[in-house]
Write a structure and sequence with these properties.
elongated; 871 residues; Lipovitellin-phosvitin complex, beta-sheet shell regions; single chain; Microsomal triglyceride transfer protein large subunit; alpha+beta; lipid binding; Outer Surface Protein A, domain 2; MTTP; 37% strand
Length: 871
């Protein structure tokens, strides 16, 4: 502790002394900025970057007579030069910088902090920011936060006599629009930023710099695949050459009078500003005709190109045009009959643009639609997964929902979309309005409370599932205990809510209520509901008595498929959690639990999780859950594809379900069940309205006799905004680094089934085709030159999920198979340097390719045995 106090005392003493009044300290300054693929000292291939050199004069021209720690320092830049790469070194390059005469600037420094700067508003941006960067080297404080050229930053000091090392990270510039940043996750980008500055003072009783060196890097990657990257490396050095006397000093009592006196004596337009860097002016693209642009890329947007890179690229190129579109532009595009064949893709673009006028125009276009409209639903699905929604999106959905009595399917999609948009909005912690979130939570819960029928309740619960409000958990537990279909939806919703602290679940009351759901206390529960309740309890690290209550169900063989499925969930959890495994295996030998029945189940239900793509820089897993009925008939299956890093994140979930199917296998009818089957989809974490295949025996037989289900039927088609992320970091030399990530996902998921009543068998296929295009860009803009880089990776493939079923005798025989063809993953890296007012350009491009061979995936052993029997 005494060392910390000594350090702080020393640092305070350091900042108590400023530059000597009336003395000019003359420095040599050099800063080099390069754009590389990796953040290492030496890179193979051509250097892409620039160097600036200059002479810097720092002169203390005023010290406050009443406060010796406050001083005004004049900064002058002389003989500034631009250098460009030539082979492995740099050579001087004639540029506009040679024609510029720098005007003096003035900084107010107090207690080691640079509070204000006065400079000429007409001076070139590169020099104004360069002075701010040099002024930031004079920031020597004892706080954990500093505001300098980069904005507000976290800092850490190390002091050894007159050597000071400062590490700076986590910077935020006040002029950057936070709404451009996407919530952190697999769909966003990651930036790594660190600056280390080493300064040597003339002596340990002075705050005069003798030498300073700075090393900084900013690395940009996509969280989907972390190998392609871009890194800005910046190195600077300020070295004292000597001193001279300055005759012009000021003796006024206050700084305001001093500045007025300076303004009268210098031929420049001095303006007061903060030390943060001035950002380059963003030129607005000249407005293009939206219809002409759509026509230009119409071929790529055609239905035949869905799930292909051609459609993803066309979408990427068109998105900026839709972002700048007016309300009239959108209405005209939607009314244009020439674009009817690609109207779905146009609606995807409108949703992805998140343009307020465009969103309002589209809802206005559909305002009188009360029947089911496939294109309207597609627009809503696209809205549900936009990466960075704003408040007006939720408001427009709510207005549209309440304005007219809509078709039941459209109403269901409106509610699930509202929930999904709310969740993404709430993840944007820097800009989300907590009161707005609370108002919408109340709105969705009120909507649930007003429901009079089961269909309405399930739809409302799905909306809450997408929204993921932690404070909804007590209400969801109420519905979980009521039993029936709403109970299943309620526990699915609870399981999906991200509540790291588990405030609303860890209470003994919540634990008890979940256990009652599992044990069917009060109301009979669907087996799926019970197994999910058990899963939730496992994650809560429940009391031993609770675990015993769950484990005892394993020895109940009145429903062998449920016991088998529950056992699979328990042992999967044990494989993932050593503490849970230890607790379970201590309890299994107990007499009333029965080790034998617990580990030797006779049902065919199963679940597992395995790697789909597993490498150091990309980890994607797939998981399958199969909940069977007696007679080997499928009750419910779930196929998951998840990103595993930087956190577990859903890419796609396909769930197949059926009710009333037991009689087809010669079993007993499920109580209160109506024969039907369907599919549930979750895309990028957003649960969609279920797709129903058939309802009732007559409809099922109609499909079987007519063969109408044998043609692939689209279940989900669209082109979606996968990533839309922007960041800004200003380097220590005043150059603004702007980073951007755009991603496009083009999908086409279809299903088909062929049923032969004569041969008593069926073959079904779920084909999930997709194409992904990701492009990250980095621009370092000094106002004099522009360093630009981009990495791009893309690929397209299809995952087939095939099921062969023979129902000529009971139990049925079923074989499931999953495969994908060869995948070619292409990735490019482009870097360039251009100089303002010059034809000079420097470019470097690298193209690579990674092949992922075709593969058939092994499922569980019982499935493999049945597949061998059916061959």
């Amino acid at each position: 502790m005494w060392r910390v106090k000594l350090y702080l005392l020393f640092l305070f003493n350091v900042v108590a002394f400023g530059y000597d009044l009336g003395v000019t300290h003359k420095y040599s300054y050099e800063t080099t900025t390069t754009l590389d693929e990796e953040c290492i000292a030496e890179n193979e291939g051509k250097v892409v970057g620039q160097r600036l050199t200059a002479k810097v004069h720092l002169t203390s021209v005023w010290q406050n007579p009443q406060n010796s720690e406050q001083e005004l320092i004049k900064i002058e830049i002389l003989n500034s030069k631009l250098w460009v790469p030539k082979k492995s070194s740099f050579v001087e390059y004639q540029s506009e910088l040679d024609k510029i005469t720098s005007k003096p600037s003035f900084i107010l420094r107090e207690k080691g902090s640079v509070n204000k700067i006065w400079d000429d508003s007409a001076e070139t941006l590169v020099l104004r920011n360069l002075k701010r960067g040099i002024a930031s080297l004079l920031e020597i404080r004892k706080k954990e936060k500093e505001v300098d050229v980069s904005g507000s930053c976290d800092v850490l000091y190390e002091v050894n006599k007159n050597n000071i090392r400062k590490r700076k990270s986590n910077c935020f510039h006040s002029k950057f629009d936070k709404s451009l940043t996407q919530p952190y996750g697999v769909r966003s980008m990651s930036t790594q930023h660190l600056l280390s500055t080493d300064c040597l003072l003339l002596d340990d009783k002075s705050n005069t710099l003798s030498k300073c060196s700075a090393v900084e890097y900013v690395k940009t990657i996509s969280n989907v695949w972390r190998k392609p990257s871009l890194c800005v490396n910046a190195r600077s050095q300020l070295t004292l050459d000597g001193t001279s006397k300055e005759t012009t000093v000021y003796s006024n009592q206050n700084i305001e009078n001093v500045i007025e006196e300076i303004k009268k004596s210098v031929s420049s337009n001095l303006v007061e500003d903060v030390i943060e860097a001035l950002l380059p002016h963003q030129e607005q693209n000249s407005k293009n005709n939206l219809a002409d642009n759509v026509k230009k890329y119409q071929e790529g947007l055609k239905q035949a190109n869905l799930a292909k890179l051609k459609s993803a690229l066309a979408f990427y190129k068109l998105l900026p045009s839709f972002r700048s579109a007016t309300k009239d532009d959108i209405i005209k595009i939607l009314q244009n009959k020439k674009f009817k064949p690609i109207q779905g893709q146009i609606l995807d673009l409108i949703a992805a643009s998140s343009n307020e006028d465009s969103v309002k125009a589209t809802f206005e276009y559909y305002k009188d639609v009360t029947d089911y409209d496939e294109m309207l639903e597609r627009f809503l699905i696209s809205l549900s997964i936009i990466p960075r929604p704003k408040e007006y999106v939720m408001e427009e959905i709510k207005i549209f929902l309440e304005s007219k009595k809509r078709d039941e399917k459209i109403r269901a999609t409106l509610i699930t979309t509202l929930g999904a948009v709310l969740k993404t909005y709430g993840m944007r912690y820097d800009i989300a309005n907590n009161q707005v979130l609370e108002d919408y939570r109340t709105y969705l819960e009120k909507n649930l409370g007003e429901c009079k029928d089961q269909s309405c309740i399930i739809t409302a619960l799905r909306g809450l599932r997408n929204a993921g409000f932690v404070r909804s958990i007590p209400l969801l537990l109420d519905y979980a205990q009521k039993g029936g279909k709403p109970a299943l939806e309620a526990v699915l919703t609870i399981r999906s809510i991200n509540d790291p602290e588990q405030i609303h679940l860890k209470s003994s009351e919540s634990e008890k209520r979940l256990l009652n759901v599992f044990l069917q206390v009060g109301n009979k529960q669907d087996r799926s509901t019970r197994s999910i309740a058990a899963e939730i309890l496992f994650d809560l690290k429940p009391k031993t008595e609770v675990l015993k209550g769950i484990l005892s169900a394993l020895s109940d063989q009145s429903d062998p498929e449920f016991a088998t499925f529950l056992a699979a969930k328990i042992f999967k959890k044990a494989d993932e959690d050593n503490e849970f495994k230890s607790r379970i295996f201590k309890l299994l030998p107990e007499k009333y639990i029965s080790f034998y029945y617990s580990t030797s189940q006779k049902g065919s239900s199963s679940l597992f999780k395995k790697p789909l793509i597993n490498s150091g820089d990309m980890n994607i897993s797939y998981g399958i859950q199969m909940e069977m009925l007696e007679g080997n008939l499928l009750k419910r299956s779930v196929f998951n594809v998840n990103f595993e890093a930087p956190e577990v994140s859903n890419l796609l979930t396909v769930g197949m379900f059926g009710e009333g199917l037991a009689s087809l296998a010669g079993g007993e009818e499920e109580e209160g069940a109506t024969l039907h089957a369907g599919m549930e989809l979750t895309l990028l974490g957003s649960s969609l309205r279920p797709y129903i295949f058939f309802t009732g025996t007559s409809e099922l037989m109609g499909h079987a006799w007519s063969g109408t289900a044998s043609t692939p039927t689209p279940a989900l088609q669209g082109i979606f905004s996968f990533s839309d992320d922007e960041r800004l970091i200003v380097l220590h030399n005043g150059m603004a680094t702007q980073m951007q990530l755009r991603g496009v996902l083009s999908t086409d998921l279809s299903a088909s089934v062929q049923i032969s009543l004569w041969s008593q068998n069926s073959q079904s296929q779920v084909a999930n085709a997709a194409a992904l295009l990701m492009r990250g860009s980095v621009t370092v803009d000094s106002g004099l030159s522009s360093l630009q880089g981009a990495f791009q990776f893309s690929g397209q493939s299809i995952v087939n999920f095939n099921t062969d079923l023979v129902f000529s005798s009971s139990p049925f025989q079923m074989c499931l198979q999953m495969d994908h063809p060869d995948i070619a993953l292409k990735y490019d890296n482009h870097r360039s340097l251009s100089i303002s007012g010059s034809k000079y350009t420097l470019k470097q491009t690298k193209r690579r390719k990674r092949n992922i061979p075709s593969k058939s995936y092994a499922l569980h052993e019982r499935n493999n045995e049945q597949c061998r029997q059916l061959k």
